[in-house]
Amino acid sequence: MADTDVKELTTDDAPVKARGLEGVIALESKLSSIDGQKGELIYRGYDINDLAEGACYEEVVYLLANGELPTQEELDDLRQQLRNERVLPTPIMDILRNVPDDAHPMAVLQTTVSALGQYDAEANDMNEAANRRKAVRILAQIPTLIASFDRLRKGKEPISPLDHGSMAYNFLYMLNGEEPGEAAERIFDVCLVLHADHGLNASTFTGRVIGSTLSDMYSAIPGSIGALKGPLHGGANREVMRMLLEIDEQGADPAEYVKQKLAEGERVMGFGHRVYKTMDPRAAILRDMVKELSEKEGEMKWYEYSMAILETMREDKGIDPNVDFFSASTYYQLGLDPDLFTPIFALSRTAGWTAHLLEQWADNRLIRPRAEYVGPKDRTFVPLSER
Question: Which pLDDT value is given to residue 297?
C-alpha cells in the first residue's frame, strides 16, 4: 500500500484502531507473502515448499536481498563474500570470553551484534552499497558469535570458521568441532531456508521501525533480536522442547499431559498463529524432517510425542501447529542445545531482517502509529507543597 493509499483504512479521517495492530496494513513489501487460509508462504513469488526442496540458504539470502534467484556466478560471489567476513574482530571475542556462562544466549547475541558496529568503518554510512556490505558482514558473523559463545560457556575454545563450505556446514562445524555429515547439513540448511522471512512479524516490524528513523543496521538488527527473544515469538521453540523433555522425564502420556495443561488454563507453545488459519506450511516440512531424523537414529519418541500432541490439540482446541512446534525436535535431534534454538532462528531471520531494511530505506517513511489515550482528563494540578 502506498502512503497515498493509507487513508483508505480510515473512516472520515478517523484513525483505525486494532489491538495488536491485527489486520492493519502498515506498509508495502515485495519480500514474502502469507495466505493464512491456504496455509501458503512465498518468498519473492516462490513457494516455500519449492525453495525448501530445491534452494540452499545462500540462494534464499540472495533472492530476498535482490528479488531474483542468483545465477551460479552470483551465488559463488555471495558465498565468497560471506566466507570473507566470518572471522570476528578480536574485541568482540574478548566480550564473549567475559560474559557469564549462564547468560541468556539471545542477550549475548543482541549485545555482540550491537558491538560489531563499533568495529565496522561503514557502520554509519547509509548509502545502499554500504548497507548491503553490512548486511553480508552481520549475516556472516552471527554464526561465529553463536558458536563461539556456546563453546566458551562449556569450557571449550572457539573454533575458527572455515574458508569453505556453506553457512549451515560451517556453523555446525564451529559448534561441534567436527565436520557435519551430508544429511545434517542438508536438514539444517532447510531449517534456515524456512525461517528466513515471514512477512511483517514482530521482530521484522521492530527492525523496520528502527530503520525508518534512519538509524543504522547495527541498531536495527539488535532491536529485532530483542523482539525475537520473547516466548510469544522466537522463544516459543525452546518452550516446546522443554515440554517434550518434561513429558519424557515424567514418562507421561503426551495426550494426557496436554489435556492437563489445557484444563489448568495453560498455553501449549507451538500451536496457533496470528495469520495462519490452517497448518503452517513450514511446520509440515519440519514434521517430515523430524520423522526422517527419528527413523535415521532409530529413536521415534520425539516424533511420536509430537504427533500425539498435534492430534490432541486439533481434537480439543481445533488449532494446528506453527513452525516452532516441529523446529524444536528437529534442532534437538541435530544435537543443538534448546537455549540455542532462538539464536539459530535469529541467524536465519537475519536474511529477512536485512532485506527488509534495504527495502525500507529504498523508499523510507517514518513509521509512527498513534495510541488511543484512555487515561484521565481535566485534572487540576496541585502544587507539591499542598499534596
Answer: 84
Nearest residue to 69 (alpha-carbon basis) of 87, 83, 56, 80 = 56
Which residue in the list 150, 189, 320, 324 is annotated as catalytic?
324
> Residues 276-286: what's their mean pLDDT?
85
Q: Which of 195, 198, 273, 356 is catalytic?
A: 273
pLDDT at 287 over 70: yes
Q: Looking at the 3D structure of the chain, how many domains does it have?
A: 1
What letter would DSSP give residue 58? H
* Nine cell digits for residue 201: 512479524
Q: Is residue 14's pLDDT more than 70?
A: no
Report the pLDDT value the prediction gives residue 305, as an integer from 0 to 100. 95
Alpha-helix residue ranges (DSSP H) falling in 67-181: 72-84, 90-98, 105-116, 128-153, 167-176
In CATH, what number is assigned to the domain containing residue 139? 1.10.580.10
Is 163 one of the annotated active-site residues of the chain?
A: no
pLDDT in tens, 225-274: 999 998 888 888 889 999 999 999 999 999 999 999 999 999 898 887 76
Tell me which residue range forms the domain holding 70.
57-181+198-229+356-362
pTM: 0.90
Task: Give the whole-angstrom CA distance, residue 63 versus residue 60.
Answer: 5
Active site residue 356: no
Catalytic residue selected from 233, 253, 337, 339? 233
Looking at the domain assignment, is residue 202 inside a domain?
yes
Q: How far apart are CA 345 and CA 340, in angstroms?
A: 9
Q: Max alpha carbon distance in the chain (Å)?
A: 77
- Residue count of the chain: 387
Distances (CA, A) of 211 to 355, 360, 367: 12, 7, 9
Residues 6 or more apart whose Cβ sits within 8 Å of residue 66: none
Is 198 labeled as catalytic in the residue annotation?
no
